[in-house]
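Box 3.1 A note on notation
Throughout this textbook, protein chains are presented in two layers. The first layer is the amino acid sequence; the second is a token string describing backbone geometry. Keep the layers aligned when reading.
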Amino acid sequence: MLVLNEVQTRDALPFAELIAAIETMFRSDCVMPVRHHHEMEVPGEADAVMLLMPAWVPGDHIGVKILNLFPDNHLRSLSTIFGSYLLSSGKTGEMLAIVEGGELTARRTAATSALAARYLAREDAEVMLMVGTGRLSLNLMQAHAITRPLKHFRIWGRHIEKTEETAHEARMLGLDAVAVKDLAVATGQADIISCATLSNEPLIRGEWLKPGAHLDLVGAFKPNMRESDDEAVRRASVFVDTRAGAMKEGGDIVLSLASGALSKDGIKAELAELAHGKHPGRTSAHEITLFKSVGAALEDLAGAILAYRRVSGQVSH
């Protein structure tokens, strides 16, 4: 059985191939049971979350991710997310690989947002604003640059020192990135705004969005958390990775449904419908689009299969 560490997992999941693998999986007959979501008390700190996410393609592969999310780990200079993915044969049940879960999650999340942007962002998008400076930020910028001709990256975070550090790391990856302090101005100039934070209050206000902007909401993974306000939802054509997940767990959707800013019918499509061509995605250059991602188990399965095949030599590198 293969065991892939963080570096091996990263190397086995180049974004172009991962985006394609996730798109293919969204078009497949993958089965996704409701994931187990358990909140766990951590004395003196924010509650932690354990996620169990199974998925399988009948007769092909079976997988399950076990993920622990500890929001206050940054106080210990540790990653917020730890986990592993167990991949098995869908024909025999044989266990094939254990893939490092944190890196798999970060890369498949970014790749899914980039896939959505292929349908929803303007084809000539050049400026991206990254809101948040955590692990996902660099992944999101790199992934979005695969599907759109991005030239300039602006990064906003609550702490300017960390923001400057993230911008430096992005430049080391070859991205034209700078830290910004004025979120409203940066939002108004961006073609793509990607948010990956643990915010409980709206960061992006709808009045700031320019015509043609695409808003990519990745954080706010609980129903009481949000990164955008009701006005952003009102102004935008709203899309989600999965309706079931977003309407249950994604605060930007849940809270807007509760306030009346959004109706269930107001969700234009989920990612599988975009992948199957059942909805065209963006329909005009001036349309504002919003994509809410809460994560789907099929994304992890697609990534784990790709990593296993690349490392085991089943596909060319």
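Residues 18 and 303 are 6 Å apart (CA to CA). The chain has eleven helices and 14 strands.
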